[in-house]
Amino acid sequence: MVPFVDLRREYQSIKEEILSSIERVLEKGQFILGQEVSFFEDEFADYCGVKYGVGVASGTDALYLALKAAGIGEGDEVITVSHSFVATALAITFTGAKPLFIDIDPETYTMDPNLLEAFLKKGRKRVKAILPVHIYGHPADMDPIMEIADKYGLMVIEDACQAHGAEYKGKKVGSFGLISCFSFYPTKNLGGYGDGGIVLTDNKKYYEKLLLLRNYGEKRKYHHLVKGRNSRLDEIQAAILRVKLKYLDNWNNERRKIAYLYKEQLKDTDVVLPTEKEGVKHVYHLFVIRVKKRDNLRRFLKKNGIFTLIHYPIPIHLQEAFKGLGNKKGDFPVTEKYAREVLSLPVFNGITESDVKNISIQIRGFLYS
Q1: Per-residue pLDDT, 123
Q2: Which of 78, 84, 225, 361 suits 158 as a labelling partner, its CA being 20 to 30 A distant?
Q3: What per-residue confidence (pLDDT) applies to 24?
Q4: Alpha helices for 111-224 (secondary structure H)
């Protein structure tokens, strides 16, 4: 049996360090906004090449608070993609703004800059920001996105929740936009043992605003300067993440090796394999293939003890919760076509080469039996 993900394998490899880090927090007796959070914020910001980090309660909160700090609110519009986890669009709506979708690049599944430029030429005067998603661990095409944003006077806020350690032309994702957002959900390349997230920025003004927004709007206790919320990365999660951050590059390289093995095993088949564009470092948070009889293949693999997931079967613009936006079936043909074909194969720290070869053999057997 091959699970879609097995976090126990990773834990066993660093068990003593993890337990020691948790004990350190317990011995100190400070569990909210202590040294562990402060140290981790600095360490992760430095890892990404950014000045400031603000730990928050989740990736969704990271996106929401980033948008709020940037001044996005009622009546504003934010351009993003429908091919993402729903949190991307939810965070926009939580501010009172409206998400506007464009289609994705057929090779990378990320925001298509050509469509972005064409969309903005229509004169959308309420658009305040662009929110590209580094989906599956592959960076969005940031150079043209940043150029277009500059041309139209728009902010860029990066959704890097699936791309810890990914690089675009030698720079870490999360270091391009005005603000960037990461999730530390347990299955992420850098995941905690519960929910968590972080917002990064080089801008001191936004950093100070984020500090207020995550903690009830307080600058000092019981003095509330803005209407903030309770969204704080806790000390135990920060301590765990500090341990795991030291291993992130090695783990990403292991994921890349597994991805290359999948590609070798499945080449010359009817499977459409993930692309890694020149000049980027894909960290394969997910290894996503496309295949015509996706649902039949998924059932076949499950019958043979191999578990898969679909990221994502229903595009955001076709979700019931977003029907009020006025989008309809057929608006984003690449996104909709891929939603019918994508299948995420197991890729996690500790998966073995024999697992990958077995999965590949089963896929070939399904395709050509």
Answers
A1: 79
A2: 225
A3: 98
A4: 113-120, 142-152, 204-213
Dump pLDDT digits (tens) for 248-284.
999 999 999 999 999 999 999 999 999 999 999 999 9
Say if residues 62 and 185 touch (Cβ distance below 8 Å).
Answer: no
Provide the mean pLDDT of the chain: 97
**DSSP string covering 89-102:** HHHHHHTT-EEEEE
Maximum alpha-carbon separation in the chain: 69
Q: Is 13 exposed, middle or buried (0-12, 13-18, 19+ CB in 10 A)?
A: middle
- CA–CA separation, 346 and 355 (whole Å): 9
* C-alpha closest to that of 298 among 362, 242, 250, 214: 362
Q: For residues 158 and 294, is the Cβ–Cβ distance under 8 A? A: no
Cα–Cα separations (whole angstroms), residue 152 to 10, 73, 116, 148, 262: 45, 19, 11, 6, 41
pTM of the shown model: 0.97
- The span from the CA of 349 to the CA of 255, in Å, is 7
Per-residue pLDDT tens digits for 296-320: 999 999 999 999 999 999 999 999 9
Give exposure, 224-253, as e/b (b: 16+ Cβ within 10 Å).
Answer: eeeebbebbbbbbbbbbbbbbbebbeebbe
CA-based angle 133:134:137, to the nearest 5? Answer: 150
Given a cut of 90, whether residue 122 has pLDDT beyond it is: no
| Residue 340, helix vs strand vs coil | coil
Q: Is 116 left (phi over 0), alpha (psi -120 to 50) or beta?
A: alpha
Nearest to 313 by CA among 5, 137, 159, 83: 83
Token pair belonging to 43: 């360490």
Task: Look at residue 165 and tell me whether its pLDDT is greater than 90.
Answer: yes
Structure tokens, 136:
């599956």
CA angle 104, 184, 283 (to 5 degrees): 50
Tokens, residue 366: 């399904």
